[in-house]
Amino acid sequence: MPLLYPRATSPFDPPTTLGHLLSGPLQFLVRHLYAITLFLRGPAYSPPTYRQSVRVVCISDTHCLTDSVPNGDLLVHAGDLTNAGTADEIQTQIDWLKSLPHLHKLAIAGNHDSFLDTQARRTQDAARSLDWGTIHYLERSATTLEFSGKNRVLNVYGAPQIPKCGGADFAFQYERHEDNWSGTVPPETDILITHTPPAHHLDLPAGLGCRFLLKEIWRVRPTLHVFGHVHAGYGHESVFWDEGQKAYERVCAVERGPVVALLDPWVWLDVLRVVWYGGKGFLWNRVWGGSSSGGVLVNAALAYQNTGRLGNPVQVVDV
After folding, report:
1. Model pLDDT, residue 129
2. What sign does the dihedral 118-301-81-53 (CA atoms) show?
3. pLDDT digit string (tens) for 140-192?
4. Sheet holding 104-107, edge to edge
5. Using an 8 Å Cβ cutoff, are 139 and 158 in contact?
């Protein structure tokens, strides 16, 4: 099979269309069907009109580079501020973030930010410290932010850990089969910040996101979940927390060979569920004028794929 189509040189590279189709035809089909249903259904979340919204500016994966960032009430950086993760690199990025005008600023580490993980920190940086200023650095921790001018309070939780994808100099890694998430996110969380994506959402078909994180966001259902790590997964996506979404995730998680999966009637039933619930959602949202109480996922990586440059626009979400 590898001789029939070109493969990506890295699991972080997006697959070719032909490669994706041949390696997982059902997953290829369901990803496109799901994307169409999400487009037709429209937003899963809109800020209530009876209160002022908070503008959240989402960035991630800047890798020692800087960019023009629009103003807002809250700035979120979802990790990979740097490349080598030295104290000097991180402090330079912190100083850039400190110079931005947002009322509140939050940051977590990514796997490249080695200094922030004592297990991955370089020996030459052992005695160094960082000056975060007024930036809230979250490491498996929560904070409550007040926006007094808008009479709003938001609960935020941030955590940097990712499924293992590199050597000992990468920070906050765990083995892919280990559950580092269940029961960790406070149930009252409005905004969740992680470095890794949840599995199957703004991820790549190779499945770099974490299935345990996916299970945890189903439990908590934050209004906004910001992450990065997989540059090619950049974008935003509505989550409706319904049976159609569950069916989509089950099909994406099928690990049997493409031929075996194609012959499984239960997998095809889930494909039909994706279409059925997508159609119902379209009628409810677009035809009958119903409202949804879902959320928004944002892969905020500014780095454009693996080019070493910033090319993805900054994303802004009102909550």
Report:
1. 92
2. negative
3. 999 999 998 899 999 999 999 999 998 888 999 999 999 999 999 999 999 99
4. 136-137, 104-107, 74-77, 55-59, 315-318
5. yes
Query: Beta partners for 75?
Result: 57, 105
Query: 51: alpha, beta or left, given left = phi > 0 and alpha = psi -120 to 50?
Result: beta
Contact 7, 204 (CB under 8 A): no
Sheet of strand 152-159: strand arrangement: 141-147, 152-159, 191-194, 224-227, 295-299, 235-239
- 149: Cα within 13 Å, side-chain hemisphere: 6
- pLDDT beyond 60 at 2: no
Q: Specify whether the CB–CB gap between 103 and 136 falls below 8 A.
A: no
Which phi and psi (to 5°) does residue 73 adopt? -85, -30
Answer yes or no: are the C-beta atoms of 230 and 197 closer than 8 Å.
yes
Q: Is the dihedral of CA 163, 168, 171, 172 positive or negative?
A: positive
For tokens 């540059």, name the residue: 231
Crossing angle for the helix pair 243-252 and 25-41, to the nearest 10 degrees: 150
Coil vs helix vs strand at 70: coil
Distance CA 42, CA 260 (A): 34
The pair of three-digit structure tokens given for residue 60, joined into one six-digit string: 């991630």
Instruction: Say whether pLDDT at 7 is over 80.
Output: no
d(CA 276, CA 282): 10
Residue of 241, 250, 240, 242 lying closest to 271 (CA atoms): 250
Phi, psi of 21, rounded to the nearest 5 degrees: -65, -45
